Amino acid sequence: MNPDTIASMGRPAGLPFRIGKIGHVALYVRDLERSARFYTEVLGFQVSDVIPSGRLPGGAVFLRCNTDHHGIALFPATDENPAGAGLHHIALEVGTLDEVVRVREHLRRHDVKIDLDGRRGAGVQLVVEFRDPDGHRLEIYWGIDQIGSEGKVRPPAQWKPAASLEAAIADPVVGQDTTLLDPSLLRTS
Amino acid sequence: MNIDAVRQITRPNGLPFRIGKIGHVALYVADIEQSTRFYVEVLGFSISDIYGDDMMPGGAVFLRCNPDHHGVALFKATEANPAGAGLHHLAFEVATLDEVVRVREHLRRHNAQIDFDGRRRAGVQIAVEFRDPDGHRLEIYWGIDLIGSDNAARPADQWKGARSLEDAIANPVIGQDTTLLDPSLIKR
């Protein structure tokens, strides 16, 4: 590593989005129940959603430490992704839905491998999922559910998974305003 | 997994701390230069600090996406910790220094493996580092440097590494008020 080369790198002017925070981290774990117990009973997270194994192989648990639907997510380890060293993905939040659309275009221009865009289930954020140079799975998102004092989480019947940003925007979940500030973005991308 | 059992797991009342946010994630990467270029030039992170090989084998880079000194940190992959699937550690912020001290006590009571407590270097947060059931390395911290509009990270000669909370509290870095709300916490 050449520290001088690295020190000379800088954020390019005019990037079409701004990542504002580390949103959540998803881990591979050997025993979902044991790990859910650790993150709640020892570290004080709260369970936002539990996905049964019928819906996702091995199931999953989503946990929150603030109003964001999940800060930590737990997935069962596999042969390919063992527990312990296992990172599932990292999620980065942006301030507007427009930026999610612009990021997809931006990543395409950089020939970054995009795994998915649209909306998954729990949390209902609109996402673009892609890889960093080592194959770490990254997610840039807008619109994750906020969980208030009553602790009430959106029922799964409202999740509306979507296999593209276009589909997710055209079919918003209850309470999610998917109007783009710049509606021409979807036609040009 | 027994879904109903997991759904019934709840946060106990009376925990001596409250994690407020995911603070940062540290990754093992194959090529620090290439990964820094990606996180900076493609994703728009800014560099807060760089460790050369003299400070850490293979080097490390600390990157921010907001005023927190680092949101992502990159470490050189090793045979034991290959790049790609490799998580280095996961850090959680609490609002007070008292909670960091209370967490150490709490984790000891739960027989969690504690790897480190005190202050490392870049970022100068005061931390307790420990393991989750799978051996994932976790950190609970208070007091990470915030980087403002001048983009100035703290100079390295102010870092004051400390190998215990007691030592870190007794020797604050410039601008860090390590007075405990409850001073009796570190005499226990």
Write the layout of secondary structure elements.
The complex is a heterodimer of chains A (189) and B (188).
Chain A: H1 3-7, E1 19-29, H2 32-42, E2 46-51, E3 60-64, E4 72-76, E5 87-94, H3 97-109, E6 114-119, E7 126-131, E8 137-142, H4 165-170, H5 185-188
Parallel strand pairs in A: 1-4, 5-8
Antiparallel strand pairs in A: 1-5, 2-3, 3-4, 6-7, 7-8
Chain B: H1 3-7, E1 19-29, H2 32-42, E2 46-51, E3 60-64, E4 72-76, E5 87-94, H3 97-109, E6 114-119, E7 126-131, E8 137-142, H4 165-170
Parallel strand pairs in B: 1-4, 5-8
Antiparallel strand pairs in B: 1-5, 2-3, 3-4, 6-7, 7-8
Explain briefly what this protein structure is.
The complex is a heterodimer of chains A (189) and B (188). Chain A is of the alpha+beta class.
Question: Key terms for this structure?
Answer:
heterodimer, A: 189 residues, alpha+beta, 2,3-Dihydroxybiphenyl 1,2-Dioxygenase, domain 1, eight-stranded mixed β-sheet, 21% helix, B: 188 residues, 19% helix, 28% strand
What does the model show?
The complex is a heterodimer of chains A (189) and B (188). Chain A is of the alpha+beta class and 189 residues long. Chain A has one domain: 2,3-Dihydroxybiphenyl 1,2-Dioxygenase, domain 1. Chain A is 21% helix and 28% strand. Chain A has helices at 3-7, 32-42, 97-109, 165-170, 185-188; strands at residues 19-29, 46-51, 60-64, 72-76, 87-94, 114-119, 126-131, 137-142. Chain A is globular. Chain B has a single domain, classed as 2,3-Dihydroxybiphenyl 1,2-Dioxygenase, domain 1, CATH 3.10.180.10. Chain B is built from four helices and eight strands. The radius of gyration of chain B is 17 Å and the shape is globular. Chains A and B meet through helix 1, strand 1, helix 2, strand 2 and strand 5 of A and helix 1, strand 1, helix 2, strand 2 and strand 5 of B.
